[in-house]
Specification:
alpha+beta; CBS-domain; Alpha-Beta Plaits; four-stranded mixed beta sheet; four-stranded antiparallel beta sheet
Length: 214
């Protein structure tokens, strides 16, 4: 799955000469947390709700409300925006976007096209929704967990049992746990796993956990 399939296209942007008040109103009225800063069609920065909070007056300030409003009206986005913006190509995979978000500990990425123009924005919420969809959680699946070790033919042996029982596998993934052990998680469209559990145990792959997720 690619970023362009999950991003928000035509995102709301703001100019670097706009005021802090302008950015705050845009975020509030559109219920967003970040604004790409664009000048002359070129991405020059990014401003987030965190950036705005950082320059908001403290309750302990001695300035009057008039002085505060005056200062905020004068302060421009270019004064507080992040100039080094982490971007990702529209044709990159969702996995690549997830790794960038994880490694940089950020909540969103500006998506650019082959010409460097803004194509959209993808956030941690978009990634989470993608995970839910890929795993088929909305449709309702039975989640099976099997302890495994790496070896040639592992998946063939296990999936052959499913094939013989005419059970459709919706998704399959192997996780490496903190202790180094591995577990195979399979999501299927059945609720009664009695016969499946018996057959897998017979070939050395007992199911150690199962749950129906709706």
């Amino acid at each position: 799955m690619f970023v362009e399939q999950r991003m928000t296209s035509n995102p709301i942007t703001i100019a670097s000469t706009a005021t802090i008040a302008d950015a705050s109103e845009l975020m509030r009225s559109n219920k967003i947390r970040r604004l790409p800063v664009v000048d002359g069609g070129k991405l020059v920065g990014l401003v987030t709700d965190r950036d705005l909070r950082a320059v908001s007056p403290s309750p302990a300030t001695t300035l009057s409300i008039f002085e505060l409003n005056y200062l905020l009206a004068k302060m421009q986005i270019k004064d507080i925006m992040q100039k080094k913006v982490i971007t990702i190509q529209a044709d990159a995979t969702v996995e690549e976007a997830a790794i960038l978000l994880y490694n940089h500990r950020i909540g969103g990425l500006v998506v650019v096209d082959a010409h460097g123009s803004i194509a959209g924005v993808i956030t941690e919420t978009d990634i989470f929704k993608c995970f839910v969809d890929v795993m088929g959680l909305v449709e309702g699946k039975t989640r099976l967990t099997i302890d495994v070790t790496d070896k040639i033919g592992l998946l063939h042996e296990i999936t052959e049992v499913f094939s013989k029982l005419s059970i459709n596998i919706s998704s399959m993934v192997i996780y490496t746990l903190l202790d180094g052990k591995k577990e195979l998680v399979i999501r299927v469209d059945i609720s009664d796993i009695t016969e499946l559990s018996k057959r897998l145990a017979e070939i050395g792959y007992p199911i150690n956990h199962s749950v129906h997720i709706r």
